[in-house]
Sequence to fold (225 residues):
Amino acid sequence: QQQVRQSPQSLTVWEGETAILNCSYEDSTFNYFPWYQQFPGEGPALLISISSVSDKKEDGRFTIFFNKREKKLSLHITDSQPGDSATYFCAASRGDTGYQNFYFGKGTSLTVIP
Amino acid sequence: AQTIHQWPVAEIKAVGSPLSLGCTIKGKSSPNLYWYWQATGGTLQQLFYSITVGQVESVVQLNLSASRPKDDQFILSTEKLLLSHSGFYLCAWSLRTVEQYFGPGTRLTVL
Fold:
């Protein structure tokens, strides 16, 4: 059973537009949701994260919107740049301070056209 | 300076041959360490985790094993490689917080 689902699988936007990447999860005990950015041939880099006590987290051009009731979240990338072209993974965990079991979605491949 | 180093950067190995991949963490005391596998174009699957030296727990069975011989070192190995072992192997670390940070990865091709 897929614990974390992402959509769309791929997304193309023009430079300057807002890209919206979606994520949903199954387990209501998940309370920490990081987003990772991965370029080809590199390891994923932590981009931004949110805990379930918040409904919004902003960091520059990147914003997470979180709906706990619907078990959905989205990553908004405003003023998209060609350098944002990458695969974005949503993950979920129970946020324990010991061992962290992260469940990852299948990723959204974002292409930003200049 | 980079916190996490993985070696080798890439490997091409034959089916049935042994494998050893390594990961070293610098500047972090007693980190939690993790091994992940990523199929080409795929999601990340956690394989092993270690909270302390000498203790490793398996998350999924993929005919692989892991060891933590030192506080800052995590090793992934197998005696006999399968075609299905091909992919991208990522080491990650965390401290006593929820964030996990990934290394640059090792690309493994099994022929």
